[in-house]
Amino acid sequence: MTSQPLQHIVIAGGGSAGWMTAAMLASQLQGNVQITLVESDDIGTIGVGEATIPPIKRFNAMLGIDEHDFIRRCNGSIKLGIQFENWGAQGDSYFHQFGRFGADFDYIPFPYFYLKAQQEGLALPIQEFSAAWQLAKRNKFVPPNTDSRSLFSGYDYAYHFDAGRYALFLRDYAQQRGVVRIEGRIASVQQHAHNGFIKDLLLDDGQVISGDFFIDCTGLRSVLLGQTLGVGFTDWADYLLNDRAVAMQTSADPSLRPYTRSIAHHAGWQWRIPLQTRMGNGNVYSSRFMADDEAGTLLQQTVEGKPLTEPRFIRFQTGHRQQFWQKNCVAIGLSAGFLEPLESTSLHLIQRGIMRLVSLFPDSSCEQEDIDEYNATTQLEYEQIRDFIVLHYHATTRDDSPYWQYCKHMAIPDSLQQKLALFKRHGHLRIDDKALFKQDSWLAVLLGQHIVPAKAAPVTQFKTELDLQRTLAAMQRHLADTASTLTGHEQYLMQHCRFKPD
After folding, report:
1. How confident is the model at residue 464 (pLDDT cuts 50, 70, 90)?
2. Fewer beta carbons within 10 angstroms: which end of the chain, N or C?
3. Is residue 455 classed as helix, strand or coil in its secondary structure?
4. pLDDT grade for 48, boundaries at 50, 70 and 90
5. Are residues 257 and 139 in contact, defined by beta-carbon separation less than 8 angstroms?
6. Sign for the pseudo-dihedral over CA of 13, 18, 22, 28
């Protein structure tokens, strides 16, 4: 087969995955490749991905999107992290912050000194040494300090926003840059006889959409990669047992918190995501341990504010396609896999899939070496995120229900078991440099859920010239005192994003 530059890319499906893909490809390819997106208004999207993680800022910046305009148009607010309630034990609360803890001393990471101080009697939880937490608990927000010497330079932030509005925002962006949208349902998919590459999408109104490269954004159905090319699914239900969610919207919280809440219950957990004009709520659970009617009732009984929508039930399967790219088709979004919404990684995996495709952008032959690299790198990323999510469930002292008894005693991946064994000795963490969740994220969850090393790292025993308790107490006071003087979250949105609270 003669290799030629791609002429026509066809994206099957819209929503966040489809329009994020269309927008970035339109930006990167600059009109040199025709891009067509096929979607049907009759096919709904899950559309509850209202919480994100910091890398989305870079994605938007690459598109040249103004942050304040984006927040305004997508009903957005700031997210400094996630508050986890009732996870390690009932009544517990801890914060997974975006960014680092404290500041390093003598080229040794701050967490080693914190763990040593904790074993010497320090009672402050590690989140007290997070600038993100000091801001979040006071409902404050300012962008990180650009002076690297400041303790307020090491935190990060993301957003809460309306995923449906974001898709429409990017749809306008993409169409302005030449992307053609076609309304229609896919009735069948035609393949080339000689190599099995996808050739055409046949729509139910008779239209034929031809292309030389296809991107599957058809959601959990995976019409192209799964159904047409027959790529199987790796099921992770034994590790991630939740397979249901029920979502509803309520009126806005009078206090616009700059963080997500994750509240564990006897068979799963609930999210609360504050947007400017409403609260997003959901109950994520396992059908093995909770019936749908019980899940819906629990959600309706525990939401705060006036209900704005009826509960909407969603079924999903945790895991991923055995290949993410096969022949001339790449799956992006739910058609590639799903790891449940606990750490807000769904939009990030869309983003990473798109950028990986850009870096390995093919010609018409779709070289197998590029495909293999894409698949191997993507699978590693899914596995690393899986391990971090599994940690939340497995690292618990809860045994008050069959659900938590299962989580506490379930078999976990070897890669996670090795991390836990290493940490439990001296607080060491082996984190891949390219992994999404870095040392401070792992530390927040481990310590927040009562996994504590047996001994402090031996190297800290030689730092006798440091008055550790006094130094850490001064650091915590500085973080708290400074945070109390900074701009409120709502005030920031009013000043920069035209927010008008009720």
Report:
1. confident
2. C
3. coil
4. low
5. yes
6. negative
Query: Could you give the count of Cα atoms lying within 13 Å of 165 in the half-sphere of its Cβ?
Result: 13
Which residues are marked as active site?
Answer: 79
Question: Would you say 319 and 338 are in contact if contact means Cβ atoms under 8 Å apart?
Answer: yes
Distance CA 184, CA 79 (A): 36
Token digits of residue 43? 């096919």
As a whole number of angstroms, the distance between CA 212 and CA 197 comes to 8
Residue % of the chain over a pLDDT of 70: 98
Q: How far is CA 212 from CA 35, 66, 201, 209, 460, in A?
A: 11, 33, 11, 10, 59
**pLDDT of residue 104 exceeding 70:** yes
Q: What is d(CA 51, CA 161) in angstroms, rounded to the nearest whole number?
A: 7
Query: In angstroms, how far is CA 439 from the centroid of its own chain?
Result: 17
Burial 327-364 (b: 16+ CB within 10 A, else e): bbbbbbbbbbbbbbbbbbbbbbbbbbbbbbbeebbbee
The tokens describing 374, both together, are 């894409």
Per-residue model confidence (pLDDT) at position 46? 56
Q: Which helix (H) or strand (E) holds 213?
A: strand 213-216
Strand partners, 97: 81
| Residue with tokens 């927000």, as numbered in its chain | 141
2 burial via Cβ count (<10 Å: 0-12, 13-18, 19+): exposed
**CB-based contact 428:108 (threshold 8 Å):** no
